[in-house]
Amino acid sequence: MSFMSRILELESFDFDGHFQEVTSADVENSLRKDELREQDLFNLLSKTAQDYLEPMARKAQKLTRQHFGNIISLYAPLYISDYCSNACVYCGFNCGVQFPRTKLTIEEIEREAAAIAATGMRHILILTGEAPAQTPISYLEEAVTVMKKYFSSIALEIFPMDEEEYRVLCKAGADSLTVYQETYDREVYKEMHPRGRKADYEYRLLTPERGARAGFRALNIGALFGLGEPRKEACLAALHAHYLEQEFPDVEISLSLPRMTKAKGIIEPKNILSDIDFVQFMLAWRLFMPRLGITISTRESAEFRDRLVHLGATRFSSGSKTGVGEYSLKNHHDATVQFEVTDDRSVDEVADMIRQSGYQPVFKDWELV
């Protein structure tokens, strides 16, 4: 049994019709419960529930403080290669976009790591495109080993691997894995990934399960909003997170809500996720899964992120650069970015905002021993 079985069960399910049948009484009933079931998730993700955002927000804030305290964890992304063999039509790194590709040497990775660590950051997220010939596991293992000198927590957002390959990277010091399904709708997925290894929907869907079995202590998943129908995507992402939480109770599970932003050579978003939908989805997730981590990236504006601090978010990226070598080796104008950063505040500025909001910014809360 894997989450693929659940996806197949739901393929004929009428999500839109089910959301439309939700009444105010259904939403109010779900809000009164201490422990929510799948039907409650549907109720809180429905359009009807948008009349109840205030009580949802109050309950979400209480649950977040109960399970996480008054803290917001911080991390920074580090792109070490933009080589990619996939043709994802929504990604600025896809193999059809013509630009000079870059892969950092291990010495360059260390320079980038030192520049990020100088900001006080101790949690890092390593990213690559999907090009195993350019970034083989030996290269990634060496990169993780170098990172250990600067960071207490090393997360990976790289191409999906087999369980044994993940074990190698865990042994080297990586502790967390991020993998977005992009879209849970198999037909849309096929359209968005016309060729390349990433075209294998099932292999990607089961990546978090392989990662958990390999020993990662934390998993971060999600959909890229702008591809499939948003409410269906939010529902399936939450069901996926819930499945992982039940199957792997000793692993920290987080969800992200990345929205498509501008990048060179990519399509326009097909389904725009509004700010109010974004907030509603986040609140519904928190009420459905009180111990769920919720990550908010610099794809979102500074003003919007400031408000999300109070609504259930637990982790922010900050000081982000989304091109290879941008921290110490290249100027922004010389780099090709995967997506444009919207909140371009420094690490110190984001940390100050968190303090002024009544929360504590956390740079380090875990160490591999």
TrEMBL record:
CDD domains: Radical_SAM (cd01335). Pfam families: BATS, Radical_SAM. SMART domains: BATS. One of its GO terms (biological process) is thiamine biosynthetic process. Residues 70-279 form the Radical SAM core domain. Its cofactor is [4Fe-4S] cluster. The keyword Iron applies. The keyword 4Fe-4S applies. Keywords: 4Fe-4S, Iron, Iron-sulfur, Metal-binding, S-adenosyl-L-methionine. It comes from the Bacteria. Gene3D superfamilies: Aldolase class I. One of its GO terms (molecular function) is 4 iron, 4 sulfur cluster binding. NCBIfam families: thiH. This is 2-iminoacetate synthase ThiH. It comes from Candidatus Electrothrix aestuarii. The lineage of its organism: Bacteria, Pseudomonadati, Thermodesulfobacteriota, Desulfobulbia, Desulfobulbales. The gene is thiH.
